[in-house]
Amino acid sequence: MSEFLPDLRQVRAFVAVADEGSFTLAAKRLCLTQSAISHSLRALEEQLGCRLLDRQGKKTVPTQEGEVFIRRCRRALAELEHAERELDGLKRWGQARIRVGAPHSLCHFLLPTVLREFRDCFPRCEPVIEAGDTSWLMTRLEEHALDIVVGLGNETQLEDGRPLFSDEMTFIVSPAHPWANGGKITPDSLAAMHFIVYTRSTQTHRLVENWFEQQGVRLRAPLVLGDMEAIKEMTRIGLGVGIVAPWVARKELADGRLVSVPMGEVGVRRDWSVFTRVKRNLTLVEETFVGICGMIGKDLARQTAF
């Protein structure tokens, strides 16, 4: 076993049969004969000294040993595919694919500007953007479904996180709200106020809850929304006090539809980072994308700082 090194064709055949549940369909997928697939699998099982596949009715499924082995096979094949894309990008400069995961707020307010700048550098590159909560996106990254994730730095313990920019949350209120005219924010007024906050189970929500705890105030039954546009609109019509990053509401703050009210001397600070799988170096395309994200993010945070 110590000298075992499977043939790549055997690995591809094994994964194809496991995915398709059929030797016939796997053969069609790989453009091989069913006999060739069978011989590859038989040789692989002999080398490993165990059965990898079993029949359950009309379907072929991995055995317990096969389930263990296929996880490693998928990772190996994903890395080989990634290497192939990188080499192809070197042959044809600027032609590559980059798969990016980011929270919805970044996809809506940050990434459009980033992508515009990025296309100037790599006009033939194909960015694929996937939106979601950072913890879910990190799972997608581990599964090799994404190349990089832009998310909150304190949401994960992965080693390969690179700081991008920081921001600080703020209260937003309608112009008619007492706080908009300099009304004093006290623990009592905080306790009495209705707040509109971002989705539970996110790092942003947890940071906001921790801030209220530090003020000695319990966040009373807030209105919880999963869309920043909805938070801003509910705030604008006076249904409560929103809690957002200023760059999310920069247009509304600039034209007076909303007013920003600092959360105090110590507010809710968030640190944004970019993550890759552990010990993987970024390609030129990815390095450029990350650099633009950091530049645009810092600029947004600086423009909307109070």
Automatic annotation (TrEMBL):
GO terms, molecular function: DNA-binding transcription factor activity; transcription cis-regulatory region binding
Domain of life: Bacteria
Range of residues in the leader sequence: none
Listed InterPro entries: LysR_HTH_N, LysR_subst-bd, WH-like_DNA-bd_sf, WH_DNA-bd_sf
Residue ranges annotated for the HTH lysR-type domain, each copy included: 6-63
Organism: Luteolibacter ambystomatis
Protein name: LysR family transcriptional regulator
UniProt KW keywords: DNA-binding, Transcription, Transcription regulation
A Pfam short name: HTH_1
Lineage: Bacteria, Pseudomonadati, Verrucomicrobiota, Verrucomicrobiia, Verrucomicrobiales
Family membership noted in the UniProt record: Belongs to the LysR transcriptional regulatory family.
